[in-house]
Amino acid sequence: MAPILTVNDVKLTIDGKPILKGVNLIVNEGEIHAVLGPNGAGKSTLASLIMGINDLKEPDSGEIIFKDKLINGLKITDRAKLGITLAWQEPARFEGITVEEYLKLSGRNNPELDVVECLELVGLDCSYLSRFVDDTLSGGERKRVELASILAMRPKLAVLDEPDSGIDFASMEDIANMIKTMRDRGTTVLMITHREEIAEIADRATLMCDGKVVQTGNPKEVGQKFKTMCVKCEVRNPELVGGE
Amino acid sequence: MATKDVLDTVAKKFIQIGLPKDLFEKNRFNLLVDRNRVIVRYPAPGVRSEVVETPTGVKTKVYVEPGTKLEEPVTLCFGAAETTEVQTTEGEIIVGEGADVKFQVYGAMAEGIKLKHKNKLKVRVEKNARFEFLDLHYNGEETFVELDTETEAYVGENAYFRSVFKQTRGRAGKVRIVLKATVDKKGVAVFETKMIGKKDDEIYVEDVIHLNGEESRGISKSRIIAVDETKATFVGETYGNAPRCRGHIDCSEVIRGKDVTVKAVPVVVVNDETAKVTHEAAIGSIDKKQLETLMARGLTEDEAVDVIVQGMLR
User: Residue A95: which of B294, B295, B311 has the nearest Cβ?
Assistant: First the structure.
């Protein structure tokens, strides 16, 4: 499979603190790629840099390449138009915007958009179409609507930041199936998580620690390394777990 | 009453600024006034009204018979199709005991006109009645209106009154909106104001709710979007004067532009130890996460702002 996203030696310092210390990552087209790591490893910062959000349009050094195009410095909208999108760990709430309107906005360039089907794929029925995307939805429902909006958009690459956070244990399998559906419908998924059990649904996984990539490979092996070494590591030193 | 030609001319000008075509095509109006001329008057069942044309506007008195329940809203329009120095409207609405009605009131100021509009309204919602007053304003982008409107309402025992002021299209102009309510035992008053100010518009909104009856309720909600050089002020006052009454002020103002001035003044006063009045006020730019979420779905920044603003004003 050809790379859809290549992160080349990306370094980033925020407020004088190095957050990313030379990250290298290749995500292949059509795969689910999990980025696993403890809190503070730099995973969400990497996700922000890929989408260009949170005022992180470009790294201090290094390259982010999407389908042979350097996307450093591009605006969020321009990245989205190339086919990249992101689902937030805690999705935004919108006053006065219905689920139907939100899905239609997300999928406005998808000629095959079927908003009811998108909802059904995330385990919600069509009664949700008229609900507002605001505080009247529970955290779990909002998360499902967010994933439905990605299905509606049908991007080339979806960056999912902690898709499992705030989801009860019983619904984890649903979330895993939704992510697989995304992939099966042609979207490459880059999934940020700190739970090895959700990372195991990936085709490949990368372990990050202290702003560096430690290992990329089979999700089970990467998950095992995370479980046995990273979780117990209090100093968060990638060299202790055999990092780059 | 005016001829069909006059109605067609007015319709053309009001539809141009966004008034729904259906209102004219399906003869929805129970009362349509252009400046000081009554163009359409068609009674609604259970609703008695007196309308008097004055040199500068109209005086209306509306009485909703007790027990009247209407599925369809009573539809009124007070507008101006041409520039006039001042338009004055005065009204009194009495909603009889146990009635349940909704008034949909359109304020339509045609494209390009200049006008001072003064409005005074007294509302009385009797025991067990339910009354919704939706005041929808349509102005042209090149229209400039100085609007000064005052509403005083009495909400009787176990009655419900909701007043919504919504500027749907065009510039706000220079606006002063004052809404006052006195609420009796177990009564409910809800005030909602939704506006967008552009260029050098000036917006002043004042909601005052006196919760005088036991277990009465009051909600004052405002959503103001201030763009360019708009000056906007919201004053929300709620007085909890009776046992177990509850009040809440919810004010959210969004600024977009360097020369915008926005102020929110929530005043909560409680005179009974079992009463409770709360408030939340937020002033700031458009929520960044909302903006970035829509941009990550491919909307431009301007498109995303428009979606967020229209949602807030809905």
Answer: B311
- A93 inside domain: no
Q: Which residues of chain A have pLDDT under 70?
A: 231-244
Contacts of B307 in chain A (CB under 8 A): 94, 97, 105
Nearest to B299 among A86, A94, A105 (CB): A105
> How close does chain B come to A130, measured CA to CA in Å?
14
Q: Would you say residue A235 lies in a domain?
A: yes
Question: What CATH code is carried by the domain that includes residue A162?
Answer: 3.40.50.300
pLDDT tens digits along B164-209: 999 877 788 999 999 999 999 999 999 999 999 988 999 999 999 9
Quote the domain boundaries for residue A38.
3-83+155-241
What residues of B are in the A interface, CB distance below 8 Å? Answer: 223, 287, 289-290, 292-301, 307-308, 310-314
Helix (H) or strand (E) holding A8: strand A3-14
Interface of A with B (CB under 8 A): 51, 53-54, 75-77, 79-81, 84-86, 88, 91-97, 105-106, 108-109, 149, 153
Residue B35 has pLDDT above 50, yes or no: yes
Structural domains in chain A (count): 1
pLDDT tens digit sequence for B48-96: 999 999 999 999 999 999 999 999 999 999 999 988 789 999 999 999 9
**Residue A244: per-residue pLDDT:** 42
Q: What angle do CA A130, A132, A136 make, to 5 degrees?
A: 120
Q: Does residue A22 lie in a domain region?
A: yes
Query: Do residue A80 and residue B311 have CB atoms under 8 angstroms apart?
Result: no
List of residues 6+ apart from A119 with CB closer than 8 A? A99, A103, A125, A126, A128, A129, A145, A148
Closest listed residue to residue A227, CA positions, set A192, A196, A201, A188: A196
ipTM for this prediction: 0.94
pLDDT at A243: 46
b/e map B190-204, b = 16+ CB within 10 Å: bbbbbbbbbeebbbb
Q: Mean pLDDT, to the nearest integer, of B108-113?
A: 92
pLDDT score recorded for residue A239: 54
